[in-house]
Design a protein that fits this description.
It comes from Autumnicola tepida. This is BfmA/BtgA family mobilization protein. The protein folds into two domains: 45 residues, Arc Repressor Mutant (Orthogonal Bundle), CATH 1.10.1220; 45 residues. The radius of gyration is 39 Å and the shape is rod-shaped. The longest helix has 45 residues. The protein has 122 residues and is mainly alpha-helical.
Length: 122
């Protein structure tokens, strides 16, 4: 039984025998009752705003092109953000970090007792 439609009655629709066989085969293929299969098909067409007589080829290509354009737009925005914001900011931070580090000089320097050993004994 179809969930949510248990209490509803049945109505007869007149369709051709060959169409009925094909529809029943399709319904069994998707593991749904005939009522639910027909409901899913109707909701699909209503939701997508298309008619069964329309050809999806050009419409899908148009949608694909639109999506590609939007993706290219997003990529362009990200590249612009990287050029104008991320790289300069990273450069400024690196410059500040390089300046902030003091040059380390050793605290203790070893003094040599005999600075010029060769000339000492002469």
């Amino acid at each position: 039984m179809d969930k949510g439609y248990e209490k509803e009655g049945f109505v007869t629709i007149s369709i051709k025998t060959s169409v009925a066989r094909k529809f029943r085969k399709y319904s069994k293929g998707i593991s749904r009752s005939q009522s639910m299969t027909l409901l899913l098909m109707l909701e699909f067409f209503e939701h997508n705003g298309i008619a069964p007589t329309e050809d999806l080829g050009p419409r899908m290509q148009t949608m694909e092109n639109l999506i590609k354009k939007r993706i290219n737009g997003v990529i362009a925005i990200l590249k612009d953000i990287e050029k104008t914001q991320t790289k300069p900011t990273a450069g400024i931070l690196m410059g500040l970090l390089e300046q902030a580090e003091p040059k380390k000089e050793p605290r203790y320097v070893e003094k040599k007792q005999f600075p010029d050993r060769d000339n000492y004994w002469k």
